[in-house]
Design brief:
Blueprint (H helix, E strand, L loop, with lengths): L12 H10 L6 H11 L5 E5 L6 H13 L3 E7 L2 H9 L10 E3 L11 E6 L11 H15 L9 H11 L1 E12 L1 H4 L3 H11 L1 E8 L13 E7 L6 E7 L6 H7 L10 E7 H7 L13 E2 L4 E5 L6 H4 E2 L1 H7 L6 E5 L12 H9 L5 E3 L11 H12 L25 E4 L1 E2 L4 E4 L5 E2 L3 E6 L4 H11 L2 H5 L1 H4 L1 E2 L5 E2 L2 H5 L2 E2 L1 H7 L1 H22 L4
This protein binds S-adenosylmethionine.
The site of S-adenosylmethionine has 24 residues, from helix 3 and strand 2.
Length: about 525
């Protein structure tokens, strides 16, 4: 029997791409057994896995049946017959697979209900789903939940919805899902429906070092849900060590026996959990009075649609002979700035390393007015087919990239150690690796105080409350979410930002009103 390669990430890009299209990541035994432990009630029944793959849950079901002396028959589906062949290599028998149907679970679901459903559904993000399929998924969510979910919900969300509707009264479901299930735009609608109609018994999170899928760019959670009346409470757990029995034994104990340093759990209020998000621990502090958006505006960096063409090195610009006045200084990658400040020295180092720092930034001047060298370069871009690329085709003319004011601060929005605010002393324009942060007041005193708050550990600590979590403890923060970052009350008190801003606003109003009366600023 082959040893199961649970998170088999192929090294070649092509193979990885294929794997992603079908969402084929196998669940390790120590997690599969804990999930089966929950869905197996004490009586016998039928287990259904809508995405069988290499049969992790079937193997776990056989092991747990033996340990507990219960008998569950095995049934399931998978879209890919080849994945089922792997199940045989991993120790299952043909007979174990006899009730596995090859087909699409979402659109050809079984016509019966089950007492036990378990899954690691395919994590297929929305941008891999065709428009026609998205339309059908919208209809499915409307029929099941009464709402059309935001289009960013991936296929795994519809696996969960479909499976919940196939659960018998009192039946149990265990799903391992990426954290976007409770952090995505669609999460409020999804969980309002689940929490009104089902009983969420428990949510299990994993510390980065204990991830069931190491090196995969997702933060997985396990949800344990019963088709029963909601209770208003649920148990929340954090697993800190992988490959142990602690998770399974915790489930077997009815979510009560913790293992010090390995598995910790406690009961939470459902309303609080819904508000905070199930991927996050409860907020212990009372909510802050101010959020970052009270003091700044956040805009994402420039998306060129073709960095190779628009974002160039000094040598390339010199070789092309295009005057530098047609460029602005820019930085593309988060790792190009390793400190909390981007200065002219940072740019000099990047130039020395051969990294691009010049972004083609054209105004609305007519094409004829450009120098020959620039005209030639733009015609070359046309030959490359750039004007037809999705993002670029929306611009008129195609070569006019987005214009941004120089932001006093940048925010590196993806990473674990790298997530931070950066002071933009070099006055660069960032590309999409960063967010632009514009203080609402340009007063020097205000900007200085704001800077002290931005990189304060208490502020940075709050990023986990608003960001989306990925693998290895990485967090990603979108512009609107960053504006919702709570600023701890003690920092507001220490640095007096609202007062500073009010003083500035009063000055501004004064300037405007005197201007109106006299036609000139006094
Ligand atoms: C993440 S794997 C999980 C497999 C296995 N249950 C485990 O946990 O190791 C998801 C499986 O879903 C299958 N799949 C993808 N789309 C599907 C669909 N529409 N209907 C049924 N199965 C599908 C894939 O072929 C893959 O085997």
């Amino acid at each position: 029997m082959r040893k199961v390669d649970t998170y088999r990430i192929p090294s070649s890009g092509e193979a990885r791409e294929k794997l992603r299209e079908k969402g084929q990541f196998w669940t390790p035994d120590w997690v599969a057994e804990a999930m089966i432990e929950y869905v197996f009630a004490d009586k016998d029944g039928m287990l259904f896995d809508p995405a069988v793959g290499a049969g992790a849950f079937f193997r776990a079901a056989k092991a747990i049946s033996k340990e507990r002396g219960v008998h569950y028959s095995l049934s399931g589906m998978d879209i890919d017959a080849k994945a089922l062949d792997e199940a045989i290599q991993y120790g299952l028998f043909k007979g174990d697979m006899k009730d596995v149907k090859i087909g699409d679970f979402i659109f050809q679901p079984p016509k019966r209900q089950f007492s036990a459903i378990v899954a690691n559904p395919p994590y297929i993000r929305h941008h891999r789903i065709s428009l026609a399929t998205k339309e059908k998924l919208k209809r499915l969510s409307l029929e099941s939940t009464g709402k059309v979910l935001d289009g960013r919900a991936g296929l795994h969300i519809y696996f969960l919805i479909r499976s919940l509707t196939l659960l018998e009264d009192g039946g149990r479901l265990a799903f391992i899902m990426p954290a976007d299930t409770c952090e995505g735009k669609f999460a409020d609608d999804l969980w309002n429906w689940i929490s009104r109609n089902y009983c969420l018994d428990a949510v299990v999170t994993f510390a980065p070092q204990a991830s069931p899928f190491p090196n995969v760019d997702t933060n997985p959670l396990v949800f344990f849900i019963r088709n029963d009346k909601p209770t208003g409470k649920f148990t929340w757990a954090k697993c800190c060590k992988s490959e142990t029995d602690a998770f399974k034994l915790w489930v077997r104990s009815g979510f009560s026996v913790n293992s010090p340093n390995i598995f910790k759990s406690f009961v939470r209020d459902l309303t609080e959990g819904l508000q905070t998000g199930f991927s996050r621990p409860p907020m212990t502090e009372k909510p802050s009075k101010y959020v970052l958006g009270d003091f700044v505006q956040v805009v994402r960096g420039v998306a060129t649609g073709a960095n190779d063409f628009f974002f160039l090195t000094d040598e390339k610009v010199e070789a092309l002979g295009i005057p530098k006045t047609y460029f602005v200084q820019a930085v593309g990658r988060t790792r190009d700035i390793s400190t909390e400040e981007v200065t002219q020295e940072t740019l000099a180092v990047l130039r020395e390393k051969g990294r691009p720092t010049l972004l083609l930034s054209l105004s609305s001047d007519p094409f004829e007015n450009y120098p020959e060298s620039l005209k030639k370069y733009l015609l070359h871009g046309e030959k490359l087919g750039l004007p037809q690329r999705p993002l670029i085709s929306q611009r008129k003319p195609w070569y006019k990239t987005e214009i941004r004011r120089v932001p006093p601060f940048l925010f590196a929005y993806l990473g674990r150690r790298n997530i931070r605010f950066i002071r933009n002393t070099a006055q660069i324009i960032p590309l999409t690796g960063f967010l632009c942060v514009y203080p609402k007041s340009e007063e020097k005193e205000f900007v200085e105080r704001l800077w002290k708050i931005l990189n304060h550990p208490d502020t940075i600590g709050n990023l986990a409350l608003i960001g989306k979590s990925y693998g290895n403890g990485a967090i990603k923060v979108e512009p609107r979410a960053l504006e919702k970052l709570p600023i701890p009350d003690n920092l507001i008190k220490e640095f007096g930002l609202p007062i500073q801003m009010r003083l500035f606003e009063q000055k501004e109003t004064y300037k405007v009103s005197t201007k109106n009366q006299t036609g000139a600023t006094l």
